[in-house]
Design brief:
- The structure is a single chain.
- This protein has about 375 residues and is α+β, with helices and mostly antiparallel strands.
- It has a single domain, classed as Chorismate synthase, AroC fold, CATH 3.60.150.
- A five-stranded antiparallel β-sheet has the order 1-2-3-7-4, with helices on one face. It has a five-stranded antiparallel β-sheet with strand order 9-8-10-16-11.
- Strand 1 and strand 2 form a beta hairpin.
- Helix 1 crosses helix 3 and helix 1 packs across helix 8.
- The chain is globular.
Length: about 375
């Protein structure tokens, strides 16, 4: 399958470049009868868009979405859904240097080699975090589909930045407080520490990484397919498609490797005719299938590679080593803008697997 397409039944194709005319996506496979308006997509785009605080890139983009096709009278028709956002605030001159001096930690050099120098280098082209707007547009539709048809809800928030880790909070608390601060962390004390750390790194011309935690509730039992299309396999593939993601873990994750089986297993019990588990170290997934418990995962983001601090690079014209300080407007930490992206990517995978498994009908009637 081409690299710009994700999914089988709920299939999304992404198009556009960071400094091109527009960004867009096409979703094929969304059932007919889903109430859908631009506002359903715009809410998540607004949470992701740049220039919203002092700790994000100061590139100013409205990211106002237009639904081009696939809806009529406020409902999906079953036809492919195409959406666009237009680019307005590009400054491509900032990227002339990286044509010959690739950024350490960025895809500049392998992309130049793979595409023979024809790749669009402006703003990172197809390798820019700006392309996550296409994931959010498609994922917002998937979120609406899952909530409308199955009552599924996905919530993501910042868990850690620069080694500063939030205390564990109840999901309802996370929903209430995650968007009350610039770093999107529900632990308000740690949120202030995280913001200070980002500002300090920014002043020093550097960047920070971190972790986004994501919880999905209301998932029916049995979503996912055995072996190669397991729920974990499909989610991991999609999450690693988000720029700067370098780690994904489910449930107890790496911490579970230090536990005994008797500690890491999730004992069963019955409550009101439902079979539940007393703990959720499996992260809501067993054998690649949802088990009815919340799906819990964490996504690790590396520090942003475009930094003002001087680093070593190679001048590809002369072959000589050179010093590089990356100009332009860049996020000192991508994590604060990532929660809506993670939510949307998770939702796309869940919608795709739910359609594959017959959990969602081809026509939605209310």
């Amino acid at each position: 399958m081409p690299g710009n397409i994700l999914g089988e039944r709920f299939a999304m194709m992404s198009f556009g470049e960071s400094h091109g005319r527009c960004l867009g996506m096409v979703v094929d496979g969304c059932p007919a009868g889903l109430p859908l308006h631009e506002s359903d997509i715009q809410a998540q785009l607004d949470r992701r868009k740049p220039g919203t605080s002092v700790i994000t890139t100061q590139r100013k983009e409205q990211d106002k979405v237009d639904i081009i096709s696939g809806t009529y009278n406020g409902f999906t028709t079953g036809a492919p859904i195409c959406t666009l956002v237009w680019n307005h605030d590009q400054n491509s001159a900032d990227y002339e240097l990286i044509k010959t001096n690739p950024r350490p930690g960025h895809a500049d050099y392998p992309a130049m080699v793979k595409y023979g120098g024809f790749t669009d280098h402006r703003g990172g082209g197809r390798f820019s975090g700006r392309l996550t707007a296409t994931l959010v547009m498609a994922g917002s539709i998937a979120q609406k589909l899952l909530e409308y048809s199955l009552g599924v809800e996905t919530t993501a928030y910042t868990k850690a930045i620069g080694g500063i880790r939030a205390q564990q909070v109840d999901l309802m608390v996370a929903k209430k407080y995650r968007y009350t601060n610039d770093v999107r962390c529900p632990d308000l004390v740690k949120a202030e520490e995280m913001k200070s750390a980002i500002m300090r790194a920014k002043r020093e011309g550097d960047s920070l990484g971190g972790i986004v935690e994501c919880v999905t509730t209301g998932i029916p039992i049995g979503i996912g397919e055995p072996i190669f299309s397991s729920l974990e396999s499909e989610l991991s593939k999609a999450l690693f498609s988000i720029p700067a993601v370098k780690a994904v873990e489910f449930g107890s994750g790496f911490n579970g490797t230090s536990l005994r089986g008797s500690e890491n297993n999730d004992p069963y019990f019955k409550q009101d005719s439902k079979v539940l588990t007393t703990t959720n170290n499996s992260g809501g997934i067993l054998g690649g299938l949802s088990n009815g418990m919340p799906i819990e995962l964490r996504v690790g983001f590396k520090p942003a590679s475009s930094i003002a601090k001087t680093q070593k690079s190679i001048n590809l014209l002369t072959g000589e080593q050179t010093d590089l300080s990356v100009p332009g407007r860049h996020d000192p930490c991508v994590v604060p803008r990532a929660p809506p992206i993670v939510e949307c990517v998770v939702s796309m995978v869940l919608a795709d697997l739910a359609l594959r498994g017959g959990f969602i009908p081809p026509i939605l009637r209310r």
